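Question thread 4412

I'm putting together a teaching handout and wanted feedback from people who do this every day. The idea is simple: show students a protein as raw sequence, then show them the structure tokens that encode its fold, then repeat with a second protein so they can compare. Below is the first pair exactly as I plan to print it.
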Amino acid sequence: MYPADLKYTREHEWVRVEGNRGRIGLTHHAQHALGDVVFVELPKPGRRFAVANGKMETLGVVESVKAVSDVFCPLSGRSSRSTPCWRPSRSWSTRTATGRVG
């Protein structure tokens, strides 16, 4: 059901490492809890992130009709680019992660 190459955080982010790059998204559970997403704030290219003592930095923000939630960066490194893959639909990151909707 879930891709074997994804790693998950307790905060409901997933990460897929491809070589020296990582792709980060929200789990299906987090998407359903948020409801309809109305805004996504992504990091600027070149921004550095660090995981220290198990604490992750905030990567961005997801705003929905129900809540505003931080998205955390589960890896240390820098953002090479922010792919605007968000669509006005809850299924955007599930589709990115698993190749299917919902």
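The second pair follows. I'd like the answer to focus on this one:
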Amino acid sequence: MANSRVAGHSGTAMALWWLSYRRSGEVAGVAIIEAESLMHARMRAAIDGLDQDLAFAEGHRLDSKLAALVTSKKIGRFLPLRQALRMIERFEGKR
């Protein structure tokens, strides 16, 4: 279930992180990563090749309401801009 989070190896609760990436100054897409911290999320995305050699722009921890809207299929994947925009529309409809 996408909104159930387990504790990481340090005992810290895992959260979902929304990581935005740019190509040539334009937003290229996002990765949604389950991790303990922003640094951990960025590292996991890089190790898994999800950043696709793009420039990291920013990252945000998703609150519990937004995290509940993320399906397990979206976690740990890079979402191109069009898919990311659909997720944002979904988020905005549920706030």
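Top answer:
Good format. For the second protein you could add a caption like this: The beta strands are 15-23, 26-35, 55-61, 77-80. The helical segments are 38-47, 64-67, 81-94.
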